[in-house]
Amino acid sequence: MAKWTTADIPDQTGRVAVITGANTGLGYETAAALAARGAHVVLAVRNLDKGKDAADLISKRSPGTNVVLQELDLTSLDSIRAAAAQLRADHDRIDLLINNAGVMYPPKSTTKDGFELQFGTNHLGHFALTGLLLDRLLPVAGSRVVTVSSIGHRIRADIHFEDLQWERRYNRVQAYGQAKLANLLFTYELQRRLVSHGTTIATAAHPGGSNTELMRHLPGWAAAAYPVVAPLFQDAAMGALPTLRAASDPQALGGQYYGPDGFAQTRGYPKVVGSSRKSHDVQRQRRLWTVSEELTGVVYPIG
């Protein structure tokens, strides 16, 4: 079968795509590809200066593209609410919400609201943002919520409901695994709740092994090994393909998970892939949803 590439992205003219963490790496490549196909792209970023640089680069790559900035700090519920309010004021409709931003393996730290940084940013921040914007997606035929997970959702990963914020102990690898598993549990539960609405779907993707800024917090043992394994990884443009396919392939179905087709899903072209048994545990999905609404104060407008 032919390999799926950016050439397969359908015309996106008239579509509004909001992409978190779009100033660098996977998010930037996702934004650039959608803008090149005619989408009105909103770069939802924490650093507006870096966001402006990214928007300028996208415009140079594809003159005439429609790219704007929206300040968004996923470590702050106040910032998320402010960004959502501005996006709702600026856009009557949103076709694509791509939950891309993330942090991996940082030293123990918390968000402005006291959540463990990886769980708070990668999951709770996107959970809140999606809930606050969902009514802009629900009326739009073909709209999608795409959430970026990771191979890491399989690595020493579980949802530690007894200590979600890692206050008793902290293991950066396990905390990342929890956050990325949460991304998939969220996607599958969201899709189940969207089915009765018949318009919006929820999909997920992972980039395999990609050389991006996400690697800057690797623990000592991994940092030492990284130069050896780095040549096996792919660049950000290839790493963004699963997200782009999840966002734009007309054949994509709600609840599908896209990743690279190569060895151990570390590199290659995007295809539908499987996720861990835990990610499909309905009890975990529903419990995490309830806890996420309680922690963020964001209650979704769907049952």
From TrEMBL:
Keywords: Oxidoreductase. Belongs to the short-chain dehydrogenases/reductases (SDR) family. InterPro entries: NAD(P)-bd_dom_sf, SDR_fam. CDD domains: retinol-DH_like_SDR_c_like (cd05327). It comes from [Mycobacterium] nativiensis. It comes from the Bacteria. Coiled coil: none annotated. It holds the Pfam family adh_short. This is SDR family NAD(P)-dependent oxidoreductase.
